[in-house]
Inverse folding.
């Protein structure tokens, strides 16, 4: 059996003005991200390191990887903007570089102390960053190369990096777990390697030391103070000691350049990548549609919707995709495509409104309902069974809520999905495109469910709920049934307004993706145009090591069985919007032959793009078929209300912000042309 792939996506339909608006906004965010990346890469500057005759950490990394090959850093912005007691400077990147790179065609995880930042000291979150890199390597069975140049803990902040479950000592546990799993570890010691820094390379399979390097439990200054001995750190633990006496290191080399050449040779001795075998003779192919257009697809306003299929079309080879169970749980997209010639599963939530399965109009997208949750769980389990890497594309507002949701057992279905994502062993990669809210973030393999890596974009918003929603919840006792402030006292009203504004602003700041990256709430912040290259690299990493996990031949995938069972139970297509609304009592049409423009779903109707902007349309205005005339908001997601035909606006039935039923007229048109009377 061979899986048939079909074209997905197409040329962008949004107006050139809308696309340009989105692209300009993304360009501003990208410039800010590049500036931050440059600060982290510069560290405290190369001058002091160069005076010692050594290379900086980034110079070492560039010489280690294959010429011209990409370096993919992770957790770049850890500790961004954070000040520390005892230091006049901040610690860019927590003083550590963790990055994926290719060495002799093999992907490796490189973990390197940034020797420009306090001589490679460990700061708060430095251990967690190192451990996260080790965990990624363990999940993918990638060789780990340590570039050690570490002066030990930054002692004024030792209480934030030494103790605790993920404190500095946990690094050595990860060293041991990697060794136990048979993952090669190779270390080069280039300078200071004190205390914990001395332990880090020891469990490695191969340890190189330069002439200026040393590994010691305690440095010379501490020994002088404790034992009144006059020694240098090289005397205590240099290559003369550890290569020729203690055997804690294997090879002595003169300098950085020689050490890096030897490290590359060690990696070359390891087995090659299995990725080409698992391509099954297929060559990698670029998407039919430019991945750079992702910047035009995602609207600037996170409440506005877009077509997720257009995103997938710019990620998969040839813009070819096989969608599984398209008739069920239409609020999510599941399917497989090739990325760099390798099979990858995709699970994403659909933002566009979808027909209610019982014919009750349409339901808003970006929300998980029973059918979609069950579909995601089944697809997740099948990908795990077949050994397919699985990419989750999140732009999720959360689970459905209310009487119907509870009666349908969404808690139980959600638990099934969470169980699947918690126990699967296939490589999982999560991408936060925009919203990552509430339990939906968890259910779609958010970071607490331990994906190999979680990528975020400059548009990402990670939170339980939006700022205004949380402000309303916080001050609920002060508000009436319409969420308006319930007081006539001007002073009390002012205090409540200011309090709600502060709460909303604080939550909005917490949702900032740079803050999330600084706290390690996400693994790496990337530009949208970088997503396709990242997925290509991750797909290759997922298939590089062989023999440690199940990878089925595509002929015997469980996905085939799942599709056959689903296709045998296909129901008739749900009723279209507007059907099943006989119980609604509309206002009388303004004139004979007038055409209603109906709400696609239940929610709140808005007739302006924003409170400070003019309405979409006014009475007497000519509109084209498909023109946007309003918005319906559900759980902070906006769905367009569009004119079913060309005509002139005769009457608007609803005020700004009014509650609206699915299928209820928002306004009326005179078909064709002619002025409204």
């Amino acid at each position: 059996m061979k899986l048939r792939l079909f074209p997905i996506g197409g040329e962008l339909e949004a107006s050139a003005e809308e696309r340009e608006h989105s692209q300009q906004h993304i360009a501003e965010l990208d410039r800010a991200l590049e500036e931050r990346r440059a600060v982290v890469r510069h560290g405290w500057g190369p001058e002091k390191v160069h005076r010692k005759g050594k290379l900086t950490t980034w110079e070492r990394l560039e010489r280690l990887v294959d010429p011209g090959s990409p370096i993919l850093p992770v957790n770049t912005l850890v500790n961004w903007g954070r000040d520390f007691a005892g230091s006049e400077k901040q610690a860019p990147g927590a003083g550590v570089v963790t990055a994926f790179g290719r060495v002799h065609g093999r992907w490796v995880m490189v973990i390197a102390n940034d020797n420009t930042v306090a001589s490679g000291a460990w700061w708060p979150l430095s251990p967690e960053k190192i451990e996260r890199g080790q965990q990624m390597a363990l999940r993918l069975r990638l060789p780990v190369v340590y570039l050690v140049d570490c002066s030990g803990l930054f002692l004024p902040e030792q209480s934030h990096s030494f103790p605790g479950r993920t404190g500095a000592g946990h690094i050595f546990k990860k060293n041991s777990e990697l060794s136990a799993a048979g993952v090669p570890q190779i270390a080069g010691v280039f300078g200071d390697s004190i205390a914990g820094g001395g332990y880090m390379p020891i469990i490695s399979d191969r340890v190189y030391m330069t002439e200026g390097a040393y590994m010691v439990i305690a440095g010379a200054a501490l020994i002088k103070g404790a034992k009144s001995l006059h020694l240098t750190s090289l005397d205590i633990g240099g290559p003369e000691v550890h290569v020729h006496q203690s055997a804690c290191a294997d090879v002595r080399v003169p300098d950085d350049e020689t050490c890096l050449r030897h490290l590359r040779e060690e990696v070359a001795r390891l087995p090659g990548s299995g990725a080409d075998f698992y391509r099954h003779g297929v060559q990698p192919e670029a998407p039919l549609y430019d991945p750079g257009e992702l910047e035009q697809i995602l609207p600037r306003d996170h409440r506005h919707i877009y077509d997720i299929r257009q995103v997938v079309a710019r990620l998969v080879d040839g813009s070819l995709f096989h969608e599984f169970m398209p008739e069920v749980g239409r609020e999510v997209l599941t399917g497989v495509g090739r990325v760099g010639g390798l099979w990858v599963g995709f699970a994403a939530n659909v933002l566009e409104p979808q027909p209610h399965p019982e014919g009750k109009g349409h339901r808003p997208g970006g929300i998980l309902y029973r059918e979609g949750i069950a579909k995601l769980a089944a697809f997740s389990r099948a990908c795990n069974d077949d050994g397919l890497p699985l990419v989750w594309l999140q732009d999720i507002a959360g689970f459905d809520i209310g009487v119907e949701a509870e009666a349908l057992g969404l808690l139980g279905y959600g638990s099934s999905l969470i169980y699947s994502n918690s126990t699967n062993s296939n490589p999982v990669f999560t991408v936060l495109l925009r919203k990552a809210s509430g339990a939906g973030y968890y259910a779609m393999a958010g970071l607490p469910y331990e994906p190999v890596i979680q990528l975020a974009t400059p548009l990402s918003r990670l939170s339980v709920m939006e700022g205004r929603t949380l402000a309303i919840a916080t001050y609920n006792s002060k508000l009436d049934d319409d969420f308006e402030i319930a007081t006539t006292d001007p002073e009390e009203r002012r205090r409540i307004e200011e309090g709600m504004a502060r709460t909303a602003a604080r939550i909005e700041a917490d949702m900032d993706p740079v803050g999330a990256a600084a706290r390690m709430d996400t693994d790496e912040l990337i530009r949208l145009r970088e997503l396709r290259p990242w997925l290509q690299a991750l797909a290759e990493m997922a298939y590089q090591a062989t023999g440690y996990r199940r990878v089925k031949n595509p002929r015997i995938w469980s996905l085939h069985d799942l599709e056959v069972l689903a296709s045998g139970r296909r129901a008739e297509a749900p009723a279209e919007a507007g059907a099943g609304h006989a119980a609604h009592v509309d206002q009388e049409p303004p004139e004979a032959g007038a055409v209603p423009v109906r709400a696609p779903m239940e929610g709140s109707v808005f007739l302006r793009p924003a409170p400070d902007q003019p309405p979409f349309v006014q009475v007497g205005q000519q509109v084209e078929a498909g023109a946007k005339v309003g918005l319906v908001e559900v759980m902070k997601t906006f769905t367009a209300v569009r004119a079913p035909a060309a005509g002139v606006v005769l009457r608007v039935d609803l005020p700004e912000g009014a509650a609206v039923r699915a299928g209820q007229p928002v306004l009326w048109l005179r078909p064709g042309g002619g002025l409204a009377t």
